Fold this sequence. Notes:
The structure is a single chain. Helices cover 64% and strands 5% of the residues. The chain is mainly alpha-helical. It has a domain at 405-563. The chain has a 6-stranded mixed beta sheet with strand order 5-4-3-6-8-7. A hairpin with a 3-residue loop joins β7 and β8 (550-554). α8 crosses α19, α10 (155-175) runs parallel beside α12 and α24 (416-422) runs parallel beside α25. The chain is globular. It starts with 10 loop residues before the first helix and ends with a helix.
Amino acid sequence: MSEQVREAPTDREAERSPRDGSSSRPLVAALATALAAGATLRLYRTHEQILTGDELHTVFGAVTRPVAEILRTWTYYGADYCVPLTALFRGWMDLGFALDEMAMRAPVLLAGLALVLVVPWLLRRELGDAATGVLAWLLATSPLLVLYSRIIRSYLPMVLLAMVAVLAFLRWWRSGSRPAGVAYAVCAPLAVYFHLGAAPLVATPFAFAAVELLADRRDWRRRLGRLVALGASSVVMLALWLWPAHQSLLDLFGLHGGGESPGLRVWWDIVRLQAGTTSVLLCLAMLAAMVRGGWLLWQRDRATARYWGSLALGHLLGLLLLSPNKMEHLVVGNRYLLPLLPLGLALVALGVVEPLRTGRLSVRAQWSAAALLWVALFATGPFATRDFHQSAFVHARPFLTFVHPGNRVDERDLPAFYASLVDAEDENPGPIVEAPWLNLGYHPFDAYQKWHGRPVLAASTDPNLWDERLRLRNMVKPTANELLASPAHHVVVHRDIAVEERRVHTSDSEQEGRLLGIPKLWKMLRRGGTILPQRLREEWGPPDYADADIAVWDLERIRAGRRL
């Protein structure tokens, strides 16, 4: 492949990348409105979400370990807690900042918003302005990209860095652009530093370049030398990041191998999640648009099409060879494939808007078709559901696998207290504090909230979450004074949450294993469900409602009584 930089674009390139400022105005408008839509979805009720699941690995690591230890340790008791995020949060704490949920979500939110602008802009030359604008909207409103932009985890920063790296590599390989080479050498190691799952994707470009060298031997010595130099500089950069934690990484590889390949049903569910819709027909339409976009890219620029195809193939093969732990589970397998989602959406955008170039559809008809696609995706995705608008557990695994029903409880199994709230006509219903709370024991709280619709706070029994350097707005310390100082209307104490867990129909594929395999968790919750009611009864008297499962105190009644 010739590396000479063409001095003037071809007619097709000129069509795709107009230089006239006026012709760029629609694209600027599309990017700006997409950014606004993306920010709205990423911020909507995010401040009400209770920290759950893997988010807490990062929080616990930041609270319990100094920065030096964080940099040397890749996991928090075997779980990858994202070293750069954890070190950042601990650094903020050491500087005297008290962190709430939104402060800790801010870096990931910013990465998710940057993705909406950066990736379309980098692909403008390959896609053209119309498809670039559509891509920005798809990235801004993709359910997976939105949800993972709201969670205190490494996935969105990793996706952003990996995309910049692989797109910069192709530009460097074609033109010899030094800034593009530097961008790869910096972003590829950082992507792996945020999450090891990025490694297959960012390594694949070297395999692609090696194949091209074998196919085109012209000036091969110089081109090979450049390739080796970039690879060496990237490896050195990666080693600088990883070396402090190398022993921990070796231990991690021993613990986290042996995952299985997802079954056909899981692969199909991953496709639906990535498409962002529960509709089978719309998912198939998205696949058809992606295939058409790939064909059009092949006709337009075969080198780029081969490169994108190699990225997808290399990442998939790399994951299957590495066999990450629990990859056979839907939520895990899906997030390992997140780095490929922006390229898939780019092909969808190209497949949707390309008729403009052939003259078969007017500009108005084309944008109408793109708008219709977006409306259909939104209407059949998770953001149109009641759960998204009222749940405090949107960031938990059952909602992340939104093609399944999540957490549900039959009406006959709903405690009478929650049933009494369903039709209650309170103008300003206060939150409900659910107690006791420990991570992974939230499924009934989520299922009950789907019935009563009130805001929910959690009374955590984990002392790490009471640390004075944290100011968590959705967590309450389970003491009488702290509960009364909260904005809650009721506190509900669950005597044995494991009993209620077994009544919940959940799409969390690991919950049954937790019920059987983590007796310590349920023992601690059962102990809290016994001790806390005794203490509250001593402070406040008998509960306002009680049955075999729960005891409920009306905090407004108690506050009013104390004011008298």
